[in-house]
# Entry
Amino acid sequence: MPGYNYFFISSPLHFLLSVNMAIRYGEARNIAVISSRIASNAKLLGEVIRRDGRVFRDVIMLESGPGKGHGSKARQRKQRMKVLRDYLGQHPAAKIFTGSDRHVEFQYAMHVAHTHDPSVQGIYLDDGLHTYLGSRRMHSFQHKYGDPLLKKLYYGTWWKNPVILGTSGWISEVYAVFPELVHPVYQQLGKKVLPFDSSYFATPAFEHITGVLAEVAGLDRETLGRLDFVLLLTHEQHYIDPWAHTERMMQILGAHAPEERIAIKAHPRSSLLPELRERYPRAVHLDNRVGFELLLPFLKADCVFIADISSSLFTVKWLQPSQRAFAVEVTHPTIEHYRDEVRALFDQMGIRRVSYDELEAALAQERASG
# Structure
């Protein structure tokens, strides 16, 4: 009997791409493994998968959280490993998909699966910018030798160190949104790089699960369909002053649309949600637990997407190539070391890079010509 396909899901992007691949393998038995470190995100995705009942046959919820007391993290991890070991024993794997082969639970699942069947494949699904830019630590001695040794000593010989996400010894195939632009280390390490097929987003199965998502998350489709702008915010740690950036953007966009037709999408791990709602009470605040890309079917064709270094911009350009998208160049202390690489990547993807002033001018020109 053919084995099961397991999909480790720990972010909204992982959910989107896992749904794509699960529909692609529609004849197989697909299992979702929710491993989000954010409890509210995990609960939402688990509920959507259960109510949908089509794309995934079952869902495993791996307990996560800060825990309490000495050794609580270790106890949680031990419990998660037991859940995986027991489930894989009863439902043998054929393929295991992940957006992060750095997660211990994925590597342990591959280890257990290989004790049953050494031919089980580990497959990496695009995690965003890391896939294309790599990591600033990837060539450091600690990253290449120190950390792997410590983890092998702690977990065992089944730990296989990834140079960047998707390059560990457990991974044989890499699926990328823009396969021609991935970091060269994938080919150097012998990974087979393959493209996603966006046609699976036009299937009844995808339409059904996005409809369930809208219902569970309480999304108002009429409100979404009236939006003129969507502002995508990176996590606040990447800004020198997140409020200075947000305020400037809302001033620029507010000159071209009422606040009710401007949506703000905070980062999934943002802690600024209550203050964002307080500062901009009339704006549409998109649920940050929901992958922005899953909202695209509900937005109008001329809606404009604006971000800075958000991975959502290039998934937008992949799914809707004609959609207008701007990347506002903002000083990010944490990414200055690969600023040039980000610029080149966005240029290759057809994402227009602008300053605040250039964005103002571009929107004014579009209004004048429209």
User: Anything to note?
Assistant: The CA atoms of residues 235 and 269 lie 7 Å apart. The first helix runs from residue 12 to 24.
